[in-house]
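Preliminary data (for renewal application), fe (iii) ion complex.
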Amino acid sequence: MKAAPERIDTGRPAARRVEVRGVVQGVGFRPFVWRLADRFGVGGWVRNRSGVVEILAEGTDEVLDGFCRALQEEAPPLAHVDSVKWEPAEAAGLSGFVVDESLDSGEGERLISPDVATCRACLAELFDPRDRRYRYPFINCTDCGPRFTIIESLPYDRERTSMRAFPLCADCSREYRDPADRRFHAEPVACPECGPRLELRTAKWKRVPGDPIARAAELLSNGKIVALKGLGGFHLACDATDEAAVAELRRRKVRPHKPLAVMVADLDAAHEIVEISAAEVALLSSPKAPIVLARDLGRLAPSVAPGHRRQGAMLPSTPLHHLLLREVGRPLIMTSGNRTDEPICIDNDEARERLAGIADAFLIHDRDIVSRYDDSVSRIWHGAPVVLRRARSFAPAPIELPTEMAPTLGCGAELHGSFCLAAGRRAFLSQHVGDLDTEESMRAYEDALERYRSVFRLEPEVVAHDLHPDFLTTRFAEATGLPHIAVQHHHAHVAAVMAEHRLEGPVIGVAFDGFGLGEDGTVWGGEFLVCEWGRADRAGHLRTVPQPGGDAAVRHPWRMAIAHAQDAGCLDAAVALIGDTAEDVEVVLGQIRSGLSSPLTSSAGRLFDAVSALAGLCPEATYEGHPAMLLEQAAETGATREYPFELSYEDARLVVDTRPIVEAVVGDLKRGRPAGEVAGRFHRTIAAATLAACRAIRGGTRIAQVCLGGGVFQNDLLVSDVVARLESCDFEVFVPREAPVGDGGISLGQVLVAHARMEG
Ligand code: ZN
Ligand code: ZN
Ligand code: FE
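Predicted structure:
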C-alpha cells in the first residue's frame, strides 16, 4: 500500500483497491462512497471489513485520483478519516457500483461515532407538514441520531441496538436498503408507523390523553416540572424564566445552589439569554450539542445560576427536545434526571420510582437507553473548545496516545468518576459517571465499563488506580485480580495532559485541586511536580496547613479560613470577618491544636475556599468547587495589583508561602475593600506565585514545558492569567482540551503512568 502518488493519466481503464481507515462505520460512509462513485462514473464495490472500509474502484487514473482525493476531502460530517491508501488492482471492466451490505466478520478495531444531535436535513423534515415524519420525535438519519446510547455490542447494526424491538415498515425498509437514500443503513431509522412512541404520564403514572408534546408544553408553561426521557438518560425540565418553578425544582431535587443548564430552541433564542462569540455559536450548534458556558445576560430566573456570571446553555440534541422547545417557546431548565449525587435515570420504571416527588409528569417512550450519558459541558477558551465534563457525544471517541500500550484500564479517582480503557495508541476515556462514593454509582460505573469492554473488545491486562486506599475505585481495581498499579493523584493529573498533548517529558506539572493523597501520607493539592510518564518528583508545593475537621472543612469553607488565618497570624481579624460564633471557632482551633481529624494539606482548592469564606462569598459549600467558583465569579478583572508572597525551601523543596497572601487578604477586607477587588488581587497573586515557582524549577532543571492539571484550573480567570504569564517568560504551556482538567480526566493519566511503570 502506498499514499496516492502523482501519476500521468493514460486514459486507459485502471483499477485500485482502496482502504479507508478511521471513524468510518455508522457514519454513512458506504453510501457516501456510492454517491462519489456515481458522480465520478467509477465502477466497482464498497464493503466494511474489520473496521476498515474497502473499495474496489475502476476508471481512468485521472478519475480515480479525483475519487481518492474526494474520499478524504468530502467525507461525511461524522466520519474521521485517518488514511486513504490504495494499491493497483486488475481492471475487470466493472460498470456499476455495488454496496456490499453483508455484515462485517467482527475482527479488528472498530470506531463508531458517538451520539449526534439532529441534523439540518432531519430538522427540516421534522417541521415539514408534508413529510411522513412530520413532528416525529425519533427522526434520524446516517448523519445524526443515537449511537452509543443504544448500542449493546458491535458490529454496529440494528440487531445489536435497542432499535431491535422495532421491525422496519416497508417505507423505512426501502430507505434503509437504498444506497442513494440519506437513510441507507441508518441503524436507528424509524417512522411513526414502525418506530418508538411517546407518551405522557402523570406523577401517579396515569396516561395523559392527547398530543404528549403539546400537553407537556402546557404543563411546563404552567410552572410544572416534567421528567423527559432524552438520549442518554432522563432530564428534569421546567421554565427557566419562572423563579417559582426553578426554586421548586431545586427544593425537590435537593440541589440548593449548583448552576442549572438551560436549553433553548435555537441560536436566536440562545442570543436572548447569553452573549456568544462566533466560536461559541459554532460549539453550541455543533453535532455534539454540548452545554456551553457563556456570559449570562440576566434574562433567566435568578436562582438558575446564583452568583455566576456565566450560564450553561445548550441547543436541542434530539427531535424530542426540538419539538418540546418550539412548543413551549421559552428557555427550559434541562438538568439531569436524578436526585443530587445519584446516577442519571435511564429507564421508565427507574424514573417513575426515583423521580417520584420531583417530577409532576413524565414524558417517556419505549426505546431503551442502553448506556447512560449525561450532557457534556464545554466552553471556548482561547478560541477553541475545552471539555469540562466529557459525556454525551464526546465519549467514547478515542484520544490518540503518545505510545503503544498493552490493554490497560485506568480506574479514575472518586469525584467526577470516569475510567479509561487504552490499547495500542488509543485511549477510550469513558463518559462522566458521577461521584463514585456510593454502591449505586459504582454499579453504574461497572455497567459502563462492561459495555466498553464488550464494544471495543478490550480486556485489560493491567489496572491503574489512585493511591488512596479507601476510594471505591481502588478497591475495584484490587478486586479485578489483575496486576494493579497505584498512581499518585497529581502525577495522574499531569500525565493526562502529557497523554493528550503527546509529550515525552520531563515537564513541570502544576497540579492544583481540592484533594489527592500524597506519597508522604498528607493531603496534596497545590503541587509543582517534575514529571515523566513513569515518575513524578515533588519539586514544590503550596505551604501546608491543617484542614480542620477533614471533609467538614470542605463543606464549611470558614474552617479553612480559620486554619489559614491562624497560620498567617491574623486570626482575630479573620474571625471578625467571617462572623462565626466563638464556640465554633474554639472547636476548630481545638482540632488544629490537637491535630485530631485535621490532616495537613497543601491544597490550592482549600486556599481558594478560605479566601472565599473570608470575603463572605460562600458560608456553606453545597457542590464541589462552590466557594472557589463564587470567588472567581466575584473577582474584578481590573484588580491587577498582587499581594506579597514568598518562595522558600524546605528540604530542598520549593514552598510557596501563603501566609503573606492571607494576611494581606484579611487586611484589605478589614479595611473595607470590596470582595471583588480582593478576589481579583488574590487570583493575580496565585498566578504570579505559579510563575515564580515554575521559573525557580526551570532554573534548576532547564525544563520549560509546563502542564496545568487539576480542577482548580477550571477557573478561567486563573488559567488565562497563568498561561499568559508563563508564555511571556518563554514557557511552553499545555492545558487539556479533550480530557477534563479535573478528576474526570485522571484515568487517562493513570493508564500512561501504569504503562511506563510496566515497561520500566
Ligand atoms: Zn439526520
Ligand atoms: Zn417506518
Ligand atoms: Fe484532582
